[in-house]
Design brief:
- The complex is a heterotrimer.
- By secondary structure, chain A is mainly alpha-helical.
- Chain A is 74% helix and 0% strand.
- The radius of gyration of chain A is 25 Å and the shape is flat.
- Chain A starts with 9 loop residues before the first helix and ends with a helix.
- Chain B has helices at residues 9-47, 50-55, 71-102, 105-120, 123-141, 150-174, 178-186, 191-202, 204-220, 223-228, 246-255, 263-296; strands spanning 59-60, 67-68.
- The termini of chain B are far apart.
- Chain C has a single domain, classed as Rossmann fold (3-Layer(aba) Sandwich), CATH 3.40.50.
- A 6-stranded mixed sheet of chain C has the order 6-7-8-3-9-10, sandwiched between helices. Chain C has a 4-stranded antiparallel sheet with strand order 2-1-4-5, with helices on one face.
- In chain C, strand 9 (216-221) and strand 10 form a beta hairpin.
- The longest helix of chain C is centred in the middle third of the chain and has 14 residues, at 151-164.
- Chain C starts with 5 loop residues before the first strand and ends in a 5-residue tail after the last helix.
- Classes of the chains: A mainly alpha, B mainly alpha, C alpha/beta.
- The interface between A and B is large, with 88 and 87 residues.
């Protein structure tokens, strides 16, 4: 071979390789660093306001007296209602799309809708909630209006997760059930759903954690920023944790920023618990069942 | 003996219909969004000409005389989208390349959960972070920067959409068959050369779709920009100034008790419609591109 | 069989993946400018052995190699020898054709460009495609995507791509197994022509193919080198019973 025709710029190539690798490691670590800085900043700012009193007091115009009692109660109410509304609807939709009308034209159309709905900004859901639930159905600024709005927002998330979980159930299980003379619904309810349950639940938890942190739609439907009572029913006005945080963070006084940070700590702890539960479930499911 | 038709076909039918109705709720939601935004926006355009809405350079719905030019809000939003893209696109793509072409399983196992956590942090928290950490930090370096400014908001929105860029790009890179990489290595290419010359070009449409999806998220982002970018509809390219995005305007109106029926109330639907149309357009395009990309490698 | 001018020589090579021994102690030499076939049943370590020659096994984390593989008198697994240089000089064609989603011409010149080829790239494209017997088919559409070619043409493009690097050795991992009989015949013909200038090592599970194209044949069974000799001899009068059993189709 004529080796004089090759002048391999080996050093330059190796340098380029090293340079890129170095930059890439740096940038990849960037996200880790940001996470640490963000959480660290919040904890440092809010830690001193964190106390039992903070959890059991109503908001106040004095920073050191302010608490998140009504916000916590509102968020719990909201989560409960959203769960009751969105989970049955989400699972039912997923079952229909996966088990009843898998390849149908209608499914395809619904599928496109769901994919696109997942990309609609949350504030648009808020606008719809305002126009439809608050004004048109006269639900006013109630927990129910908030929960319905939030349910619309997280339904695509639940449906997509539930579909994936249902799709992962092997076909043999269905065929086995059909062979024993089970109807479609019996097959679904006795075999497919139990097998898909861990996956569905993981998706539900992640959707709920999304709902817990969403702020914009609740502001749109007019969740109040100052609520000094605990809602007693779904038709009561309410505030929620992220709304309360937003309210404190948007005040000019620095003390209230620290109160906001304390609220964020509480919110992040709840999210952490939810996400850990999801991770644990996913892990357990992947270990327990081996198809 | 098994009783005949113990579980009646009628009941099966009813169940099927109920399930179908639930599934159709997604379609109903889409049509409700389009219907509500469409009719309310139509009312808005009875008072304001479409032309002055999309070409006007002043957004002063509360002043007298009122002025409804959406360009300042659109400009503010674009400033955030571009700024966040400048961060999330390069950082996200390079992170994805590193994770898919270089990193060990162990390293992936550390970075991926961290990204998932970042993705799960509520946007209001990012807003707080921008306002109380990023802005003071930057003001040390850039004293001319205003307390509310586009730059800080764009930075945190960039961080916010970063996990999405990484995970979608990672999926796209992973979809490139291993045989292509091996072909590259067998020709004596380095990992960087294979990534840049073979893997990324092969995954290009999927990568582009990821960018579009992430940027549409930035376009509709609300809380971070409401808290950090300000409430000044300001047609400017200077990221150190206070601006207002479309989303932040909608929040501002709904925070101040606007009575239904007034023109101010109508503006949120008109602005919301623009928001919806743009993000929907971006999503439809991205999904289309992504589907074709996946088909290519099946 | 006498090796006069070895291009690759293995001494006491052992390959392990974690606890699994994929190649048992193996010492042999491969003749220059010949076609050497590696045959054996699936999972016997044919591909593993082939991929040792250009260090494509480096991507497998659990891969461990003992012993030496000398190429031009130097150990391929020498820490100081840049793997990039080795792969430039020892090319590879894969089982499934894997043209890059670029134009036909781009497929040819991508590797040489990276490795600092100084000559005319246009000439290189033409000569490589001519040698691979593809020039007449594609000369008018060099700038179209390589993915528009048929399966057999794609594989010949991959061979042309390997030739363009002006390697000394070309490794082929079942290069015709995914092709129809006509394309297979053309690839085999091509291998026959290439042996004048290149040393070729080809893995195949098709014994007729090994008999047709190769000068020497190496029979591997469960990671063990059973027999190695001139193809004519090995297929007509093998020394080892197991070889005879395999080539007569009693197992594998």
């Amino acid at each position: 071979m004529n080796n004089s025709q090759w002048k391999n710029p080996g050093d330059r190539r190796a340098r380029k390789e090293r340079l890129f690798k170095g930059c890439a490691i740096g940038l990849t670590t960037f996200s880790l660093v940001i996470l640490v800085v963000l959480v660290g900043h919040v904890v440092v700012a809010g830690f001193s306001y964190l106390s039992l009193d903070f959890l059991t007091s109503f908001p106040s115009r004095f920073a050191h007296k302010a608490g998140i009692k009504s916000a916590l109660a509102g968020s719990f109410w909201l989560m409960g209602l959203v769960f009751l509304i969105s989970v049955p609807l989400g699972i039912a939709s997923a079952i229909y799309l996966e088990e009843y009308n898998r390849k149908g034209k209608l499914s395809r159309f619904i599928e496109i809708n769901i994919a696109n709905l997942a990309g609609v900004p949350s504030i648009v859901y808020g606008i719809i909630g305002l126009a439809v639930f608050v004004r048109f159905f006269h639900l006013q600024r109630s927990l129910l209006a908030g929960a319905l709005t939030m349910s619309l927002l997280i339904l695509p998330v639940i449906i997509i997760a539930a579909r994936e979980a249902i799709r992962a159930v092997p076909k043999n299980i269905r065929l086995g059930a059909y062979a024993l003379g089970a109807t479609r619904w019996q097959t679904v309810i006795h075999h497919v759903l139990p097998a898909a349950a861990p996956g569905i639940l993981t998706g539900v938890i992640l959707a709920m954690s999304r709902a817990l942190g969403e702020t914009a739609p609740l502001i749109m439907i007019g969740a109040l920023t100052y609520v000094a009572f605990v809602p007693a029913g779904p038709m009561d006005p309410f505030t929620a944790l992220p709304i309360q945080i937003f309210n404190w963070a948007s005040r000019p006084q620095a003390e209230f920023h620290e109160v906001a940070a304390a609220g964020i700590i509480v919110l992040l702890i709840f999210l952490l618990v939810l996400n850990s539960a999801a991770v644990w479930l996913r892990h357990r499911a992947s270990k327990k069942i081996r198809w | 003996m098994i009783p005949k038709q113990s579980f009646g076909w009628k009941k099966e039918r009813v169940i099927q219909w109920m399930l179908a109705l639930s599934a159709l709720l997604a379609v109903a939601t889409t049509f409700t969004i389009i219907g509500v935004l469409g009719t309310e926006t139509a009312v808005f355009f009875k008072h304001v000409s479409f032309w002055s809405f999309i070409t006007g350079t002043r957004w002063e719905p509360l002043l007298d005389p009122k002025s409804f030019g959406i360009l300042p809000l659109l400009g503010g939003t674009l400033l955030i989208v571009i700024g966040s893209g400048l961060i999330a696109v390069p950082v996200g793509l390079i992170t994805a390349i590193y994770l898919s072409e270089y990193a060990s399983e162990h390293f992936r196992g550390v970075v991926k959960p961290a990204l998932e956590i970042l993705a799960g942090i509520p946007t209001v928290v990012y807003g707080y972070f921008a306002l109380t950490f990023v802005t003071p930090l930057l003001r040390n370096v850039l004293p001319s920067m205003q307390v509310f400014n586009a730059l800080s908001a764009a930075i945190v929105v960039g961080i916010m959409i970063l996990p999405m860029v990484v995970s979608l790009c990672d999926d796209a890179l992973k979809a490139v068959p291993a045989a292509l990489r091996q072909g590259g290595y067998a020709l004596g290419a380095t990992t960087f050369e294979v990534s840049q010359g073979v893997v990324v070009p092969s995954a290009l449409s999927g990568i582009m779709a990821s960018f579009v999806l992430a940027l549409s998220r930035a376009f509709g982002e609300t809380m971070a920009v409401t808290l950090a970018a300000g409430a000044t509809p300001n047609l400017t390219w200077n990221p150190l100034e206070s601006i207002q995005t479309m989303t932040a305007y909608i929040v501002q109106v709904s925070l101040g008790d606007t009575p239904a029926g007034g023109i101010e109330y109508q503006t949120i639907f008109a602005v919301g419609a623009v928001l919806f149309v743009v993000t929907l357009g971006m999503n439809v395009i991205a999904h289309q591109v992504m589907r074709r990309f996946r088909e290519e490698y099946e | 069989m006498q090796i006069k001018n070895p291009v690759l020589s293995l001494s006491s090579v052992v390959v392990r993946y974690d606890d699994f021994t994929a190649i048992k102690p193996c010492s042999l030499e491969i003749e220059r400018h010949q076609v050497t076939a590696i045959i054996g049943p699936s999972g016997c370590g044919k591909s593993t052995l082939l991929r040792c020659f250009n260090r494509m096994n480096d991507f497998v984390d659990s891969f461990r190699l003992e012993g030496e593989i000398l190429f031009e008198g130097r150990n391929i697994y020498d820490k100081d020898w840049d793997v990039v240089d080795i792969r430039r000089r020892i090319g590879m064609v894969f089982q499934k054709s894997n043209p890059f989603p670029k134009s036909i011409a781009q497929n040819i010149i991508w590797g040489p460009k990276l490795n600092g080829y100084q000559g005319s790239l246009d000439d290189l494209v033409q000569s490589s495609l001519q040698r691979a017997g593809l020039w007449n088919d594609v000369k008018d559409r060099l700038h179209e995507s390589a993915l528009t070619l048929s399966g057999g043409q794609q594989q010949r493009l991959c061979i042309a791509r390997a030739i363009a690097m002006q390697p000394e050795v070309i490794l082929m991992d079942e290069p015709a197994s995914a092709l129809d009989p006509r394309s297979t015949a053309r690839i085999e013909e091509l291998i026959g022509e290439l042996r004048r200038d290149y040393s070729i090592v080809i893995v195949t599970h098709n014994m007729q193919q090994a008999a047709r194209v190769s000068d020497a044949t190496l029979f591997l069974y469960e990671g063990e080198l059973i027999e190695y000799g001139a193809t004519d001899k090995l297929f007509t009068n093998p020394d080892v019973q197991k070889t005879e059993d395999y080539i007569t189709g009693r197992f594998g």
